[in-house]
Design brief:
The protein is an alpha+beta fold. It contains 3 helices and 4 strands, in the order ββββααα. One of its GO terms (biological process) is adenosine to inosine editing.
Amino acid sequence: NATAENTHSAALGNACISLSQSDGHQPGKSPCFSVNWTAGDGQMEVVNAATGKRKDSGTASRLCKRALFARWARLHLFAGRTRTPQSASGRGDEPLVYCEAKLAARPYQTAKRQLFASLRDAGLGTWVKKPPEQDQFPLTA
């Protein structure tokens, strides 16, 4: 039998739930970093979770949109495409913009629509959209 001094109990029907400590997890004490790695990377990357910057150099993570966009373009070329996709304007001298690449990716757009419909159908609300300016950056070398 635990004493009332160190145990908080709540009766729920016939069940009784007891906590041995009232101050369980303290989110403020969690580390503010994340770690990522893949088979092709030379080492793991430690990232400040608040800023998205690498802990060692302060530069952007390899998981940032710009880095993933550049990897996608290299994969596009590696897969046998003759050149990196160009801007929606059709002009070869303008680099492709991230939001244009996402809009042109039909499988991605289909999956996104299915996700949004599933959230709506399950009564989970709607996806919170970010400002469109956030995805308006060009693919640069």
